[in-house]
C-alpha cells in the first residue's frame, strides 16, 4: 500500500433484512442475494456501496447549492474529487475514493438458548487479518484459532447460547465445545466494526459474549442456507387475487449480519476548484478521506426494497494507522 494512501475499514451492521441482489436466477429463488464466486458467501458489491455513499455525500452538500441535487452533482468539487465527475463528464477524471466489495464477517444464526449467535470461521478471520495489514492497522493482538468440524469455540464461559453438556445448538445442529476462542477477537470487532454510539452499547456487549467460531465448512453451510426466503406477490386490483406470473421468491440476509469493506483514499485527480485539472490545488488523500468521514451517515440504506424497509445498515468507519 503506497504511503500516501489513507486506508480504513467501513463496518456495516444490518438493522433490517438486506437484499444486495444478484438479479434473476434459474433456481427456485427468483431473486437471490449477491454472493462471492469462489466462496458463495454473501457480499455487497463495491459499486453499490460507492453509489450509496455518493448519494449520502450529495445530500450533505446540497444545501450549498440551494438544495439542487443536480447542481450539487455537477459542481461540488469535493463530491467530484472523491467520487468522480457526474455522468456527462465522467471522462475527465476518476474519483479518488476506492471501496472494495463488502465482505461477510459474522452471520447471525438461530440458537436454542440465547435467541441467536453470531458465527464466523478461521477463513473469515484470516482474511480479516490480511485486510487489516493492508490497511495498516498495526499489530493485531489476536490470532486466528483452529477448530475441528462439528465443534465450536466460545468467546467466554458466560456465552448465553451454552446449553447443558457444554454444547451449542444452532438451527438443528449440535456443536461440541472445543474450548475458548480468544475473547480479544470479539472484542476487537466490537470496538472497530460495530457502531460506537451509546445506542449500540448492549449490542457490543452481547457480541463479545456471542461470537462463535466454527469450522469453515460449518460456517459455509449457514452462510449459504440460513438466509430468509420470502414469497412476494402482486395482486390484481379488481379481483384482489394474485396476478398471473406475479408470484416470486426473494432471498434476504437476516438483520444483525455484519460486513466490512476496505476504503482507500488517494490524492484527488481533479482540482479542488472544480475547474480544468491544470488549475487549482488538488485535494490530498486526507482531504478526500475527510469527505467520506464528514458525510457518512449513521445509517445507510443498501440494496433493494427500500420502500418496504429493507437494507438499513448502521455504519462505523475505522481508520488504519498512518504514523
From TrEMBL:
The GO annotation for biological process reads: defense response to virus
Under Pfam families, the record lists: RAMPs
Keyword Transferase carried by entry: no
Q: Could you tell me the keywords of this UniProt record?
A: Antiviral defense
Q: What is this protein called?
A: RAMP superfamily protein
Q: What is the lineage of its organism?
A: Bacteria, Pseudomonadati, Planctomycetota, Planctomycetia, Isosphaerales
Question: Which positions are tagged coiled coil?
Answer: none
Q: Which domain of life is it from?
A: Bacteria
Domain (CRISPR type III-associated protein) ranges: 13-312
Amino acid at each position: 500500500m503506497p504511503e500516501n494512501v489513507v486506508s480504513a475499514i467501513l463496518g456495516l451492521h444490518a438493522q433490517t433484512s438486506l437484499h444486495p441482489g444478484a438479479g434473476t436466477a434459474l433456481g427456485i429463488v427468483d431473486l437471490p442475494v449477491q454472493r462471492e464466486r469462489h466462496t458463495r458467501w454473501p457480499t455487497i458489491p463495491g459499486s453499490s456501496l460507492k453509489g450509496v455513499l455518493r448519494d449520502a455525500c450529495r445530500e450533505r452538500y446540497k444545501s450549498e447549492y440551494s438544495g439542487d441535487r443536480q447542481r450539487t452533482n455537477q459542481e461540488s468539487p469535493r463530491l467530484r474529487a472523491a467520487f468522480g465527475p457526474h455522468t456527462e463528464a465522467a471522462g475527465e477524471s476518476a474519483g479518488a475514493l476506492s471501496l472494495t466489495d463488502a465482505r461477510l464477517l459474522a452471520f447471525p444464526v438461530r440458537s436454542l438458548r440465547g435467541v441467536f449467535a453470531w458465527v464466523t470461521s478461521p477463513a473469515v478471520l484470516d482474511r480479516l487479518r490480511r485486510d487489516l495489514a493492508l490497511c495498516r492497522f498495526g499489530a493485531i493482538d489476536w490470532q486466528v484459532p483452529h477448530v475441528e468440524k462439528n465443534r465450536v469455540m466460545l468467546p467466554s464461559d458466560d456465552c448465553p447460547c451454552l446449553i447443558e453438556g457444554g454444547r451449542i445448538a444452532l438451527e438443528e445442529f449440535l456443536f461440541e465445545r472445543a474450548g475458548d476462542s480468544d475473547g480479544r477477537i470479539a472484542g476487537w470487532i466490537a470496538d472497530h466494526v460495530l457502531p460506537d454510539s451509546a445506542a449500540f452499547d448492549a449490542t457490543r456487549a452481547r457480541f463479545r459474549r456471542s461470537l462463535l467460531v466454527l469450522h469453515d465448512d460449518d460456517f459455509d453451510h449457514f452462510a449459504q442456507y440460513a438466509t430468509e426466503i420470502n414469497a412476494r406477490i402482486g395482486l390484481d386490483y379488481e379481483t384482489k387475487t394474485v396476478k398471473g406470473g406475479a408470484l416470486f421468491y426473494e432471498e434476504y440476509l437476516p438483520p444483525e449480519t455484519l460486513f466490512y469493506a476496505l476504503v482507500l483514499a488517494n490524492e484527488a485527480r481533479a482540482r479542488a476548484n472544480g475547474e480544468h485539472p491544470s488549475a487549482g490545488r488538488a485535494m490530498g488523500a486526507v482531504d478526500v478521506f475527510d469527505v467520506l468521514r464528514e458525510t457518512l451517515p449513521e445509517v445507510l440504506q443498501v440494496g433493494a426494497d427500500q420502500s418496504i424497509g429493507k437494507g438499513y445498515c448502521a455504519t462505523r468507519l475505522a481508520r488504519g494507522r498512518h504514523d
